[in-house]
Amino acid sequence: MTSPSETENSAGTAPPAKAEKPAETPVTQETAASPTSDATTTAASAPANKPSVHKTDYEKDVVYLYQFTRCPTLPGISPFCLKVETWLRMTQVKYENVDHKLKFKSKKGQLPFVELNGEEIADSDIIIKQLSQYFGKDLDAGLTTEERNISHAFSSMLNNHTGWVSRCWRYRHPGQFLKAAQMDVKRMLNSKLPKGVLQFFFKLAFKSNVQQTIGHGLGRHTTEEILEFGKEDLKNLSQYLGTKQFFFGTEPHLLDCVAFAHLCQFVYVPFGGLLEFMEQECANLLAFVERMKERYWADWDEICKTLELNTHLPKKAPEEEPKKAADESAPAADEKTPAAEDAVKKSEATVEEVKKEEVIKKEVVEEVVTKTITEVKE
After folding, report:
1. Could you report the per-residue pLDDT of 215-224, keeping only the tens digit for each?
2. Which residue ranges are recorded for the region named Disordered (predicted)?
3. Between 3.40.50.170, 3.20.20.105, 3.40.50.150, 1.20.1050.130, what CATH number should domain 4-33+47-306 receive?
4. Does 317 score more than 60 pLDDT?
5. For 58-68, what is the mean pLDDT?
């Protein structure tokens, strides 16, 4: 079950078929809503439909990920966004982050969501499930039934309980959250409003989310009680990890992906003394986070420094040839085109005419002055 924070309405999403070829054209709103519509309707009589995806010039089998902007302390300020992107890196599925300036949400009102071959998939758990089926990438392949059950139980705890510990603190202390995350609200919201105004409204908006935590249940407790719940979750996770490199041995699985995404929120946006608690009581979790980071996020520091979304993609080579061609077509500084020469000649002629007019005016004025003086003397 996915965290309620990821689901704000109940709009459905049709999964891509596992073994079928992906659609070559984007699914429209009409076909998604009416799969049994009359196939004999002609294109001429049917109204033009707006594509149901934002990325209409998509590349086949490339996952387009929509998430929050980067953060100076970690790549994903949302554990659900970080979970999906980490899964994509673990499975080596080709993906690209879409810089949507926080303008878009899924049909369910969520971030993250992805688009694949013209279809939208929302909710982090559903995204991972459907992409796993489509690309044949099961991170839990090889696990026993018991291990899969344990993975499901811990993942549910992280998504629906541990994650809310962090969320409760952020919603109750938006100012401290901004400071801990070193976030630039002006850049994040891509707004021209003054930074102070944006921070004020950001804090108001975050405060309004407190009601979500109350509806969830965890928000009904005091901050001290909530932090104790967090410590209990961390302790149980730490005890199960023990001295292992990853939760089920020497290779990472889906639980490692989920745990990494949530633990990063405690480590890189510290709050309520929980990082200090981890250092003293759950040091193996910190080592685990570092292990996952080194294995799948070699560009972590670059991301936090540049806040770029796609540092994992190959850098595009500069286009030298078009520039060279443009330079060759442009006249040299000491060369003059016929049009330029004509313009220069006309300009020079105009200057000469102006000079002649000035001389004539001067002569006329001198003549009038001389004549006037003579008349006065007479």
Report:
1. 899 999 999 9
2. 1-52, 314-355
3. 1.20.1050.130
4. yes
5. 97
